[in-house]
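Lab meeting tomorrow. Please check the following:
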Amino acid sequence: MENGVPIKEDELWTNLSFTKGYDKGSSAWAQRVKGSLGIISDEDALVILGALRRQQDAGTTYPVDQEAYQRLITHVVRRADKDVTVTVPTATIEVPIAAESPSETRESIRVQAILAEIGARMGLKIWLPKNDRTAILTEWKNDHDALLDRSPAQLRRRHAQDRGAHRRVVAERPIHSEGF
């Protein structure tokens, strides 16, 4: 990380079309490049490529504020019963995948089984779509105690009814293995 070129270095900040004119303290510029596979102009690409080549040759080290970095990779997941701090790993974690059956398991089923495994290891409750549940459980052979019988939306509706329909319910965004 110390060898990366910070976007707020003058060489980049003043020459990139998407940062020009923004204050370095602002994050508004990021909206223009946020998201995967965004296209940048050829001119911006040349500016970035030039900065990276100079960095490769000169080898400038940029100090990293470890406390700020930790804040960036730490997230809070709001569960129905409590908040859980989740840290994005800096190393790759290998999650074992069950061997494929001769009938060729769909990739989406394997992915949902992996997500269920990750969620269970994090201590989360897992809801599986009814149509895929049997296939996912065939792939995911571990902690089935983490399974929910009802979808988070059904649970929220039931909870809202129990508390009284006159109260406003703020729905938390559930973590589950649906919606790729």
